[in-house]
Specification:
The protein is mainly alpha-helical. The protein has one domain (about 1-235). It is built from ten helices and three strands, in the order αααααααααβαββ. α10 links the parallel β1 (about 240-245) and β2 (about 260-265). α2 runs antiparallel to α6 and α3 runs antiparallel to α9 (about 220-235). The longest helix has about 50 residues, at about 30-80. The radius of gyration is 25 Å and the shape is elongated.
């Protein structure tokens, strides 16, 4: 099922609310409804503001940790070249598999840490096979990089597991429903009242969808997070990798200008099946 982001979702809501104003008449002013609207709006603003603040903080930490992890893996690959070509090729293939797994599960799992742990531990196994005397400085550097990568992985994974529970979502939806009922009840037949009601209702839905996007690690920087890791493929001389079903689902997209890339034709979690895609000029 295709993911509908906050902008598209609010546009759909706008159309629905416009239709509602045509077929469901308002009742006009009511002191009781106005009081309910005031209280529910106040509570919603406080609760939604608190959740958005925490979600933005979580999103920022995940974005910073992912960028740090990408930079550290790049440094690890370049450092591995100081050990020898054979060793560097093994590290290259493990990093490649590691990132392919990331882009197979991006945004679709609550436990990303475990999903690609085997490849990360595989890198540790290869480093342990290196003879320290061959290049002690590079060896020590790789140990430090692996430790830093583990810290970044932990930070991103722990934050990505933080989700709103059903109870908090229920409170948000109940308050939003009360507000929607109130503003549609209070509207009159004047054009300004109809327009303001539709705009307020659409904005309310937009706020809810923004909270959902932040919970799902979506937003204006979502593509930046993905493309930061994709650049590692470029540097390692590997074609970029995207999953067909996550592209269709709207989780990420292939940027314009990418001439060739690998496309995973398997669903997330299934046995990997990849084909090479060359874009037409």
């Amino acid at each position: 099922m295709r993911y509908i982001d906050s902008i598209k979702g609010s546009l759909i809501a706008l159309v629905v609310f416009v239709l509602v104003t045509f077929f469901v008449p308002g009742k006009g002013p009511s002191q009781d409804i106005e009081l309910i609207l005031t209280i529910s709006t106040f509570l919603f603003a406080i609760f939604a503001g608190f959740i958005i603040s925490r979600s933005v903080g979580k999103y920022s930490i995940i974005k910073a940790s992912a960028s740090q992890e990408d930079a550290l893996f790049l440094s690890l690959y370049k450092t591995s070249q100081l050990i020898g070509e054979g060793f560097s090729k093994k590290i290259r293939e493990l990093i490649d598999s590691y990132y392919i797994r990331i882009y197979d599960i991006y945004g679709t799992t609550k436990y990303p840490y475990k999903e690609n742990l085997a490849y990360f531990m595989g890198i540790w196994d290869e480093i342990r096979k290196v003879k320290v005397a061959k290049n002690p400085q590079a060896y020590g550097r790789m140990l430090k990089l692996m430790s830093d990568i583990e810290s970044a992985r932990n930070a991103a994974s722990s934050k990505s597991r933080e989700r709103l529970g059903k109870g908090r979502w229920s409170v948000l939806v109940i308050l939003a429903s009360i507000i929607l009922f109130s503003i549609f009840y209070l509207r009159n037949q004047a054009l300004y009242s109809q327009v303001i009601t539709v705009l307020l209702a659409t904005t309310l839905v937009l706020v809810l969808l923004i909270i959902r996007d932040l919970q799902n690690i979506r937003g204006t920087s979502g593509g930046v997070i993905v493309e930061s890791g994709q650049e590692i493929f470029d540097i390692m001389g590997k074609p970029r990798y995207y999953n067909k079903y996550l592209i269709k689902g709207g989780w990420y997209k292939v940027p314009k200008g990418i001439k060739e890339y690998r496309l995973g034709t398997h669903r997330p979690g299934e046995e990997p099946k990849t084909k090479f895609v060359r874009n037409k000029k």
